[in-house]
């Protein structure tokens, strides 16, 4: 078992290198969120809780945004993120920022067209806390809550800007209520299932600041079919995905 500070190198296609550790790694949910968010050409994009930088790097890989900012509060995650940026080839700037995203001093308001966030799945006070501090921050609302994220997204998004999250289905009603509370109207919803016989284990939600009510529920995303990746999963991963040493 590797230590919390030991790094591994993973490559995505020919242009992206991601440095992971036991404390800051990634899973399929990062790919699902980046694919769902669909940045547009020339947009300024921000990822909350960027960790090792996987989502900003995937968003930059689309060659659409003007720049991608990734905000992470933990120094080790930012160090991994910076190394990933240094050793990758992207067509636009990817900017790691080590800061508390809820602080009004971190970033000026109304500057982003798209914000993404793969937030802690466990609500404050819910579940048994992980022993490691990094895992607590990643899995539980110890540093910021879903409400903090929605409040900050409202401040940083331009009018008409979009906020995309992934979360567990049991938090869907919380997300819907908080999006509307902070003026971010839910516009797209997609449920993710392991296969056609499984209940959803994740949802993807996009809200738009200042938009009128109209929610589009998209077809479920199925990761597997007959034990193999579906065509859509292969499309989402795109190119090669190889784990390094």
From TrEMBL:
UniProt-listed InterPro entries: SAM-dependent_MTases_sf, Small_mtfrase_dom, tRNA_Adenine-N(6)_MTase
Signal peptide stretch: none
The Methyltransferase small domain, residue ranges: 31-125
GO molecular function, one term: methyltransferase activity
Organism: Merdimmobilis hominis
SUPFAM superfamilies documented for this protein: S-adenosyl-L-methionine-dependent methyltransferases (SSF53335)
The keyword Nucleotide-binding is annotated on this UniProt entry: no
Keyword check for Protein biosynthesis: no
CDD domains to which the protein is assigned, alphabetical: AdoMet_MTases
Protein known as: Methyltransferase
Name of a matching Pfam family: MTS
Gene Ontology biological process terms, A to Z: methylation
Keywords: Methyltransferase, Transferase
């Amino acid at each position: 078992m590797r230590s919390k500070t030991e790094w591994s190198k993973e490559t995505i296609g020919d242009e992206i290198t991601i440095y992971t550790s036991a404390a800051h790694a990634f899973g399929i949910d990062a790919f699902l969120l980046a694919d769902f968010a669909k940045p547009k050409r020339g947009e300024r994009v921000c990822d909350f809780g960027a960790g090792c930088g996987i989502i900003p790097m995937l968003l930059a890989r689309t060659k659409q945004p003007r720049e991608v900012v990734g905000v992470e509060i933990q120094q080790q995650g930012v160090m991994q993120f910076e190394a990933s940026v240094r050793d990758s080839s992207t067509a636009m700037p990817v900017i790691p920022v080590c800061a508390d995203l809820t602080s009004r001093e971190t970033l000026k308001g109304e500057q982003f067209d798209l914000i993404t966030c793969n937030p802690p799945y466990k609500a404050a006070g819910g579940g048994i806390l992980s022993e490691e501090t990094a895992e607590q921050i990643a899995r539980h609302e110890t540093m910021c809550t879903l409400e903090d994220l929605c409040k900050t997204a409202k401040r940083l998004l331009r009018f008409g800007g979009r906020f995309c999250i992934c979360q567990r289905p049991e938090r869907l009603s919380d997300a819907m209520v908080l999006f509307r509370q902070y003026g971010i109207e839910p516009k797209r919803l997609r449920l993710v299932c392991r296969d056609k016989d499984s209940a959803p284990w994740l949802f993807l939600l996009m809200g738009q600041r200042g938009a009128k009510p109209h929610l589009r529920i998209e077809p479920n995303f199925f990761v597997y079919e007959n034990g193999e990746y579906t065509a859509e999963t292969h499309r989402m991963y795109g190119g090669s995905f190889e784990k390094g040493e």
